[in-house]
Amino acid sequence: MTEGSGQLSFDAGEGTAFPAVPGLFHIADWLGPEACDEMLAGIGSGVWSTELRRRVQHYGHRYDYGRRSVTADARTAAAAPPLPPWALRQAERLVREGHMDRCPDQVIVNEYLPGQGISAHVDCVPCFGPVVAAISLGSACVMDFTPPGGGEKTGVRLAPGSLCVMTGPARYDWRHGIAARRSDPDGAGRVPRGRRVSVTFRTVLDPA
């Protein structure tokens, strides 16, 4: 896949494409348990922001949720630190495996405790490039994808160590979100959530 095209061209068997959500690709076990633990340890040594109801970390460029913009000016108090080694390793792997055609330069880490979620949204179109890749760590959860104009949602289970790549319509037209609840449906029952950490990699188009 090339980032400029925003289309997927992965080999069969590497993961799962979702015909109901064009441009969405998911690899359930992209990271093994040891790699997940290593990433969580690196994230744990970082500085958390409590500007939202959930804790977040910004690297490369800080995203301003109010202005819906990014900044890269290292002279400002709001500047984000550079990508740490644990993030650079995964960023380089994303390029090496063809998920992105240039190294992502912006990373946001989100921590979700049981009962926390994020409203359905499209990642800032003027801010970020045509590929958004997210790694899930800790607990699993279900992410809902809502089609343009509303309608029936498509739920995707994001397991620990999984990679979710959004391109094309999944990136630009479909909204994605996580319901604020303490458990997720699983067949005939429900699965309790634990602490989940997501790491989202993007390329910045025009930093302010």
Name its key features.
14% helix, 7-stranded antiparallel beta sheet, disordered N terminus, alpha+beta, 208 residues, 4-stranded antiparallel beta sheet, single chain, Jelly Rolls
Description:
It is built from three helices and 15 strands. With 208 residues, it is of the alpha+beta class. It has a seven-stranded antiparallel β-sheet with strand order 1-2-11-8-15-6-3. The chain has a four-stranded antiparallel β-sheet with strand order 7-12-9-10. The chain has a two-stranded antiparallel sheet with strand order 4-5. The two termini are 28 Å apart.
What's a concise summary of this model?
With 208 residues, the protein is of the alpha+beta class. It is built from three helices and 15 strands.
